[in-house]
Amino acid sequence: MHRRLIAPGALAVSLLLTVPASAADYKPGAPGIGDPYYPAYGNGGYDVSHYDLRLKYQPVTDTLEGTATLLARTTQDLSRFNLDFLLDVSEVRVGGAKASFARSGEHELEITPQTPLAKGTPVTIVVRYRGVPSSKQAYGFTNWHRTPDGGVAANEPEAAWWWFPSNDHPLDKATYDVSVAVPDGTQAISNGTLQSTSSRAGWTRYNWRSAKPQATYLATLAVGRFDITTGRTESGIPVINAYSKDLGDTAGAARASVERTGEVTDWLTGYFGPYPYNALGGYVPNVTTGYALETQTRPFYSPRQFAGGSNVSVVVHELAHQWYGDLVSVAGWKDIWINEGFARYAQWLWSEHEGEGTAQELADHVYASHAADDPFWKVKPGDPGPEHQFDIAVYDRGALALQVLRNEIGDRAFFTILKGWPAKYAYGNATVGDFQAYAEQVSGRSLAGLFDTWLFRPSKPGAPAARGAGVASRSSGVTAPKSWTKITATNSVHGR
Ligand SMILES: [Zn+2]
Q1: Ligand 1 mean position to 339 CA, how many Å?
Q2: Which domains does the chain have, with CATH numbers?
Q3: 8 Å CB contact between 160 and 115
Q4: Rounded CA separation 132/153 (Å)
Q5: How far is the CA of 495 from the centre of ligand 1 (A)?
Q6: Which residues constitute the signal peptide according to the record (predicted)?
């Protein structure tokens, strides 16, 4: 029992006996970082700068065990603080001393250090744990995917709870060293560069490093039997891709798509600026889910993305996120348009590049193919609500809004913004409001009306608004561009 319910007077007396009087008003860190969409996600009172995960995973039993060492700094006077985590914890140390800990809520680990922590203190947190990730649920779901030969952690907006303790919100980015021992013949795939591997007594250890800040949901782990391919982009970024050995009929289509990673990344740099990381790739594990995810430097692709044949469009989508989502992350989950509107628009630019329909034609088609009473228009991409965070409208209406912006301010300003934004907020976070302000600054135009009409109203902009925005206003008869099928085949890119 680590949470004591005692009268305020008694609390003051007991603290006076154990810590300096100045510490009497040290308070618990909040159990959430303050995101209204997900009030319990992340935590308050500290900021993590680095995760060191030294793990061991046995595929036969789905057992993950190891030690997480977190380097953090307190942002308030703390009597205790939370991490988000589901596996079974055996010991926690804070600053070297054993700390007490308790469970609360759906995924909270409450840690009470022996001595309260003053604001601004660097602190090292060590968590020893073990567990069967597939046996753990929060809110009735699991984001740990069992495969025939291992397991995978990849989902949005949460995946870390099943494999490491964290401050699970994009606002708290950190660097990572992920070291995982797996039985010989099995591989452990994660983000970043493969620093080294070593083998001993039937186990092989893979040491991965992410040297640039990374949001917790963008950290990934996949254990299984993979075929690994390596290469380099034109600009020299090393590429490591991994494919489950048992992809069956989809193996060829998966490779024919993901092996385009280097080429697509080089192409995207023309729009978004230099690639921001020193590692690149993608992986296709044998999971039964259907989506893909922009896990940093190494996107996750479900085999189902390639069930209908090769699809480079989904690779374009996930790699576009490396700038729009990973390099510049949402400040809150309401800002999801910053991720998905732009990743979808990159697919439209790819369609244009491939001669399969221009972004304008795709925008016209989106506008024309949804009647005014279609629930599609009820979703506000600029603030969709947690239930509609990954609604197709955030993607398609979101990309339509970008075409409207392009028409309004012209190609020169528009593409200056596309390239300037990732540099302006590199390795940080930003809001939809920040984007509007930046677009107004670069274009020298007031864009409040445009953003309101196309991103924030729960209704279809009328024909006059469409005409004014350069969008074909016919309610029918706009033929789908050739790329439409491949683009819509990626519509399950997120979601659980
Ligand atoms: Zn996406």
Answers
A1: 6
A2: 333-488 (1.10.390.10)
A3: no
A4: 13
A5: 10
A6: 1-23
